[in-house]
Structures are given as C-alpha cells and as structure tokens.
Amino acid sequence: MYNSYQQRLNRLLTTNGSKIFHGGRKGIEKESLRTTSEGYLAQTPHPTQLGAALTHPNITTDYSEALLELVTAPHKNIRDAIQELDDIHHFVYANLGGNLLWNASMPCIVHGESAIPIARYGRSNAAKMKEVYRLGLGHRYGRVMQAIAGVHFNYSLPDHFWPALQTLEKDTSDSQAFRSAGYFRLIRNYLRHDWLTLYLFGASPALCVSFFTDHQGRMFQTLDEHTVFEPYGTTLRMSDIGYQNKPGLDVSLNHVAEYVDSLNQAVATPHPPFSEIGVQIAGEYRQISDHILQIANEYYNAIRPKQIMKAGERPTTALANRGVQYVEVRSLDINPLDPIGVNEDQLRFTEMLLIFCALQDSPEFDQTSEEMIRHNQRQVALYGRQPDLPLTSPEGEKTLQSWAGNLMQQLKPLAASLDEHEDNIPYQQALNTQQQKVENPNLTPSAIMLRKMREQNLSFYGYAIQLSKQWQDRYAKRPLSDDVKQHFTALAQTSHAKQAEIEAADDISFDQYLANYFSN
Predict the structure, then answer these.
(1) Which terminus, N or C, of the chain has the lesser number of Cβ atoms within 10 Å?
(2) Burial letters for 305-327: b for 16+ Cβ neighbours within 10 Å, e otherwise?
C-alpha cells in the first residue's frame, strides 16, 4: 500500500542522508476569542496597545473584532515556533485589560448574531475591503459560524528537498512545476489521511447550546442544560456544523493551474442565493460581490496551497506566477489542555505526516475519492473514538485503529531520520505519544475533556472558562521579559504608524479600489 513512500524515503536517505528532511519551515497561526472575565464575547475594540490589526505581523484579528489571530514567523525548528507563540501570548495577556483568551475552538456564550462584532481595520480602502468581506461571510454563512477558532500549521519542505527528489525521479520538467506538483500530491494525500489528525488532535467533542440559532443542536446528545456533545466525538468543529463552503463550489486539487482556474472562476461567477443578499443596499456594501466566492481566501479546506504574496497581489496570481511555496494545515483544533492551544508533539507528528504525504504516490481526485474523504472526516469527527470504527479506503473498509496503526509503523524510519540532528529523540517521542492514543482512545484530548467535565460536573462553558483562567493566571505569575515587552511594544507602535500611512495614501474611491484589485 505504501511502496512508493518507502522507496522514495529509502532512496533519499541513501543518496542524501537524514539532512534531506531538515530545515523545513514551520509557522503557526492560532485564533482565540477575546472574552470578558465571565466568558461572554468581548464587545470592546481590539486593544490599541496590541497594535493595529491591519498591519501588525504577529497580532491581528480574523472574522470578529473579538477573534484574535496570533501569528509566528516561519522557523526551521518547531521549538522556536512554539517559543515565539508563547512570547506572543505572554504579551497579549499582559495587555488584555481584564479580558480572557478563550482557549477552545468552539465559542463561549454567544447571544445571537448581533453579539458578534465584525473586525474593524481603520479608514483605508484596504480596511474597508476586509470589513465588507467579513460582512459578506456573515450574510452567507452566519456570524456564529465565523466565531469558531482553530490552529493553522504552515509548513514547507526544505529548499534542498525538491531538487534532490527531482534528480532521483529523473524528472526533466521545470523545477517550479515539479515542486507545485509535489505539493499537490502532498495535499491530496493529506486529505486522504486527515481523519487521523481529527482523531489524534480533535478537542471539541462538546459545545455550548448558545452556539445554535435554530434546532440544529438536537442532532447531538445532551450533557446538561447548557451543553451538547457526542460520546465518541473528537471534533464537532470539523463536522457539518462547522464552517463549510456552500454547494456549487468545485475546486480542483489535481494541478496548480486547475486549482487557480477553478478558484478564479468561482470568484467570477454569480451565485443566485448570494445575489438575493445584494451587494449594495441603500449605498452600503453587504458583500464584496454576489459570486460563488468573494475572494479566493473564502475557499475552505483542511489544507491549502500557499505562495507568499507581493503587495496588491491576489493569492491565485501568486500561485500562478511562482507556484506553491508552502501548505497551510487548517484542521487542528485549539487544545484547551495546552496553555497556547498547541504543543510540540502535535506539530512534530504533523510534520512527519506531511513528509509522508509528499513521498507517497497520490492518484488524482475524482468524485469517488472526494466522497470517501468527506465520509471519513465526518465519521471521525462525530464518532472517532467508537471501538472498531469502520473507515473507507481505496483497498476497502478498514477500522480506524488498524489503518492508523499501519501508518504509525510507516513513520518510524522517518522519525528516526529527523531525530538524527535533534537533542534527544523528540520526533520518535511524538510518534510514540500518538501511537498510544491509537491503542487507547481515552488518551485523546476529546476523551480527556469529556472525562474531566463529567468528573467535575462542569458544562462545556464551565470547563473551558476554568482552563482559560488557569492559563491566564499562569502568564500573570510569570514576569514578562524586558526583551519581549520592548519587541512587541515597538511592533505595535510601528503597526499604528503603517496604518496611518496607508490611510493617508488613499486617493481613489472604494469602488475603484475593488475594481483595481480584481483586475490585477
């Protein structure tokens, strides 16, 4: 089943040594709702001392003014990325003015759509575009849906990896085309195995009933009057109640050109249900357009190909011009059991899984394979810890444990090679930790959360706010170093100055700004 992976792995290690997998870049984006000390969604503006959300490189907002997004730079070592995320958290906690960071993926107490403030970015055209885009998301999918948070892991294989693989493969195509094809192979394989990420790291088996604006919550079991859950659930965030693109979107993941073309077509094609919303009503924008996608970033998937954009460049233009530079893994829940919502073991395992996906052959997607992926994702999101849970594979039905156990065995030589230039054996330890979760579902974050809630007789809200306050206290008891304080204070000041420059430079109408963006 994994012959192509084993052959490529062995040939690369024999020819290039273990260094072939070292030096890939890893970055983290962690979203967190900002709440009051009582656990209600904050209605106050983004704290000015954190900087300008429009221009700050590390501290911004996502959908809501109350949904912080904390972003690290790319690092060659996962430990350095985790340390930077910890420093960002430390600075944020010191400047929240009595607010909390809600350290869970599913929202806190939500009092309806109107209680979720849209993020604001200033007076510039760039700011207005970001705000109108978010207004459109609210009209299309509902604001409550946008209050769900997660962790994104950005990863690129080392620069020397792709030329070495291309030489071994005796591939004579353009190097950029070879790299992009390799990343799309990785993406398709990751989606085939995304169920494993949901099982191992899913941490949203329960949620507050205030999340639902209708009767959708009745599909789940009741833990108490404030909480619904799934007994074997792993990540309700990644189930059908989570963020989903509307029907009618067909994006190809077979080739970069097809991917770009299908996204561009979606951005250019009107969608009747969105036309009913209207683009402008009484002179006020409700969405950027009435098309299937307002912009390419509206496309949601568990993993996306990425290229660093130049000023004013669209994501699809960057991909078309320079190919895939890295991938963004989007299916990681916030882990409430960890002070920053993610840990080294998770990311080391995810890195290994991504390398595996880059080395294994990956047939192009068709309708059958896409249906299989969706089926397995739903099964594991809702019932992942159920004994002998059946999943669908190209070879036929398999239990989750048997399939996962086979994958763990495949990763062992890769973990050993990655550990050759590390202190101790962190990759093998990370793999062993995940192996134990496969053998014992009670060790998964989702199982631990439900067990703790039952033992302490806590609702989802009660448990999540307890942990959020615990981590807040942890940072409060640690002095913020002068270096970290000075660094992020300077970044905040610079970001405010950059926002002012952008606002001062605007010399066209918003209508013209949008026209220029879509014609670029």
Answers:
(1) C
(2) bbbeeeeeebbbbbbbebbbbbb
CA atoms within 13 A on the CB side of 304: 19
Question: What CATH number did the domain enclosing 112 receive?
Answer: 3.30.590.20
The residue whose two tokens read 């496309």 is 299
In total, how many domains does the chain have?
A: 1
Q: Please answer whether residues 21 and 158 qualify as being in contact, where contact means their C-beta atoms are separated by less than 8 angstroms.
A: yes
Burial class for 195, CB neighbours closer than 10 Å (0-12, 13-18, 19+): buried
Residues 267, 214 contacting (CB under 8 angstroms): no
Whole-number Cα distances in Å, 251 to 50, 226, 258, 296: 37, 38, 8, 11
**Domain, as residue range, for 229:** 3-519
Give the C-alpha separation, 62 to 81, whole Å.
Answer: 20
pTM of the model: 0.96
Q: How far apart are CA 235 and CA 106, in angstroms?
A: 10
Contact 116, 144 (CB under 8 A): yes
Distance between start and end Cα atoms, the chain: 45
- Per-residue DSSP letter, 124: S
Residue among 328, 280, 22 at smallest CA distance from 150: 328
Kindly state the tokens that stand for 193: 């195995």
DSSP-derived secondary structure letter, 71: E
